[in-house]
Please model this.
Amino acid sequence: MSNLKTSVFTGAATAIITPFKNGLVDYPRFGELIDRQINGGIDALVIAGTTGEASTLSHEEHCEVLRYAAEHVAGRVPIIAGTGSNDTAYGIELSRYACDVGYDALLVVTPYYNKATPKGLIRNFLDTANATNKPIILYNVPSRTGVNIPLSVYKELAKHERIVATKEASGNLSAIAQIRDECGDALDVYSGNDDQIVPIMALGGKGVISVVSNLLPLETHELTAACLAGDFKKGAELQLKYLKLINALFCEVNPIPVKTAAALMGLCSEELRLPLCEMEPQNLEKLSGVMKAYGLI
Model:
């Protein structure tokens, strides 16, 4: 399968955290986090994704976070809006808003909790693509949503001109190899797991939508740049160099550790929204120990 589609980005995109202060979005800190990413060489930004605690934002907050980030980035790097929902109609509403305020692409997760049949998945994504005018990156993360995008669905969705990529966080490298084989250039693949950047890029993936890059934007960019240049030996060395930090950032459910880590670095408050809560003491000790070993604190 082949198609002339333009990549939203190549390299490393940060799924950026959303900082809170006294129960509200901390916009001054948010702007500083965005600037730190761009100044650090990041290739793109995902706003209001899972790592951005989008599921705890009210509709008004979600829209305001999207609008603020678009204005603050001001075209410096591609921006991708997290707009997926388990209610297709609501996801379309958010997606249209993101298109209106200047996003370059939409990251649309599989419907969670109610899940969907393969037919329902196809209709969810096609309806979203047909109701909007920007490229769509599918997001497959079965560990969080309870549903996996099967190869048959990928093959059907890849035919649509605006469904251009997938963020693959299934962890299944064999399945990802099949996606690359069957969909080819009609569907870019981005790693959704920081510990699988190199193997996915070795299969022809275009980069990563990353959590660890919240802390290390330049280093994550450099890892993907090495792979894009065909230097997988250097890429593998960097992948393994940062593996202990990557693993520590998932010792509890994302984004609890990465927001805590950012707070330890003085980048924002560690404030989360329930049902996310502060780390267990033993995990915090582990995280801070790893961060000290990397010279982050």
